[in-house]
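note to self: dont lose this again. the chain is below, predicted strucutre after it. 343 aa total, dont forget to put it in the shared folder this time
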Amino acid sequence: MHYLKKFPLLLKLMNSSFDIIFMGHFARDTIISPDGTISSSLGGGVTFGTLTAHIYNNNHKIGIFSEKGKDFNNSWLEIFDSEIDITGLCSNSDYSTNFEIEYFPKGGRKLTLKSKAAPLLFENLPAHYLNSKSFMISSIANEINFDFIRQLVDNTEGWISIDIQGFIRNFQQDGTINLAPIAHIIEKTHQIIKYCGKRLILKGSGNEINYIANCNDVIESTRKIAKLGNFIVCTTLGAQGSLVKQSDNKMIHVPAFIPDRGIIDETGAGDCYISAFLSEFIESHHHWNDLARCANIGSSAASFLLEHKGPYGFGTKKQIQKRIEKGKIIPSHFENTVNNNNF
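---
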C-alpha cells in the first residue's frame, strides 16, 4: 500500500487535484519513409494522449508518469506546455524505448523495437498524482504489468482507461513483434477487468478486441468482452468509426469524421480518440447517455491528428465540436448493423 494512503486527510489536502495522469513510455520513433528518408519523432500514447487532452481542455490539470533513458533528447519535452506536470518523468534507464517504423510504398508498415526503457514501478509514481479523476494507461512495450494496475486500483479512486495494445504484444530478441499466446492474454484480460471493475474504460483496435475475445466478428467480440463486467469497451475501427459498449446497454456506433486536409499520418489516432473521450467523460454524469457524445468527440479529435505528421495539429474543443456539427462523416456498414439490432 502506498504510504500516503494511510493518511487520507493529508492526501486530500495536498495540491493533487489532477484530472488525468498519462502513464506509459515515451517512444523515440525512428521513421523510415517509403522513399528511404529517415526522421525522428516523439511518439507513444503518452505523447499523443497528453497533447490531445491539454489542447482539448486547457483547464484540466494533467500529469505524466513515464521513463526516459540517457539517450533521450530533452528538447523534445518542449512540445509540452509548462502547465503539464512532468515530475513523474523518471530517468532510470540507459536507453529510451525506441521503435523503428518502416513504411512501405504499397501501404502497411513494419514495427521493430530497437531498445526499451526500464519498466514503470508503482513505487516511483508521485504521491500527488493519486487523487486524479482519471488515469490513462498507454503501455507500448509491456512496461506496465498487472501488479502495477492492482496497486493503482488499491490506492486511487479515479477512472482507469487502459489501451489493451501494450498488454498483448510479444517482443522477440530481434525486436520484431507478434501477439502473446491467447490463453495468457485471456487470463490477463479477465484479471484486469475483475480488478478494475466499473472504473475501467478498455480501449482496443478491432483486431485487438477480436484477439482478446478469440473471435473474428468485431461486433460479437465487443459484446463478448463487455459481458465480462460493468465497464466501458471502446473498439476503434479506423475509417469505419468505433463501437462503444457498456455491460448490457445497447451498443453505440460512432462514425469517423472526414479530415478537411486528407489523411497524412494515422500514427496516434487511437490514443487521440480515447484521450478526448476520457477528457469529456470525466466531466459528464458518467451515464450511458453520455457515451455517444464522448465517442463523437474522440472520433472528431482523431480526425484532426490525421491531417498532420507526428504529434501536431490537435484540435481545440471548439474545432472538434464544429466538425461534429458539420456532420461530414465516412459512411460505414456498421452504422445500420448496430443501429438496427439490439446488440
